[in-house]
Amino acid sequence: MRIIGTGSCTPLKIVTNDDLSNIVDTSDEWISTRTGIKCRHISEGETSADLGTKAALNALDNAGIKPEAVDLIILASMTPDSMLPNTACRIQEKTGAVNATCFDLNAACSGFLFALNTANAFLTSGMYNTILVIGAETVSRTIDWSDRTTCVLFGDGAGAVVAVSDNSKKYTAVTGSDGIKGSVLTGGGTVLKNFLVNSDATNLIADDYYMKMNGQEVFKFAVSKVPECIRQVLDKSEKNVDDIDYYILHQANVRIISSVAKRLHVCEDKIPVNLHNYGNTSAASIPILLDELNRAGKLKDAKNIVLSGFGGGLTWGATFMEL
Ligand code: COA
After folding, report:
1. Which residues' Cβ are closer than 6 Å to ligand 1?
2. Ligand 1 atom 7 nearest Cα
3. How far apart are CA 59 and CA 11, in angstroms?
4. Most CB contacts within 10 A, which of 31, 121, 164, 224?
5. Which amino acid residue places its CA nearest to atom 24 of ligand 1?
């Protein structure tokens, strides 16, 4: 696989840590020191499809190809606009990618990595040739804005890449999931509210609609699993830690990123960070960072990159790519 274009889009509205300290008992000092986050972009009505569409169009423009050339759109999102139609189809309509087959994929914050792996498998099989892989989220819709333990962490946004087949480029991935630990990070209102079987079902917003998280458990999981799966993918790719130009990690918490750098003995210059501007944008975080690096010209001389993420499910993964 080769990435021939990148794009991203974030809502215009910026919410600072000080803004949040007006609605919950928190402070810029607490949020900055515990997470590294300074502000986040929050949708004022843009949906995941709106943000994903802009990111996709930017990626197509960057690749220099027309929407009609795309034959598959995979959208990674845990915040789709609707279950029906899927949000990738909404993006197809808005981008004019009329020849594409479209589906959504949800693996929370690992979603973009899983979508990229899916794209790679389709490209390798020859089933599709030009694939838009998008991560788009409006996490702000799933946040309980009175819960200071989660509301300070997340933001909205979208990132996209155009991927095409190229057998000369090595692509290796490892992934994993642990459904037994799923309860440490939940959301999405899955309780059955059906008047046919439950006459008390007066409220369509289920009790578990909002995101709930055991932050310390997620932290411990991330700081052990991310370096472990990066080592695994390096072994599988027959590369050393130093062979990698950039480690593009899911942007959740700067302390997690520093811990990964330390555990892998990687200089932090090789691990770019932008979470101070965006917070955790879930499946969008890796493609937004990729797009920033690309547009800053930093990928021009880079040969090898590793992407790695983790998230609800629990899910995790690491991918080695030759550029
Ligand atoms: N502002 C001020 N105080 C806060 C706060 C906030 N926004 N959120 C929590 N606190 C308080 C807690 O209530 C607790 O108070 P107490 O000691 O009086 O009980 C104290 O701060 C410490 O809380 P704790 O949970 O131990 O903090 P922490 O150092 O573990 O940091 C996280 C919390 C959420 C930042 C951290 O655990 C984390 O980043 N976890 C991973 C989350 C993540 O990445 N999720 C996304 C996965 S894709």
Report:
1. 26, 30-31, 34-35, 109, 148-149, 152, 213, 215-216, 218-219, 252-253, 280, 310-311
2. 148
3. 17
4. 31
5. 216
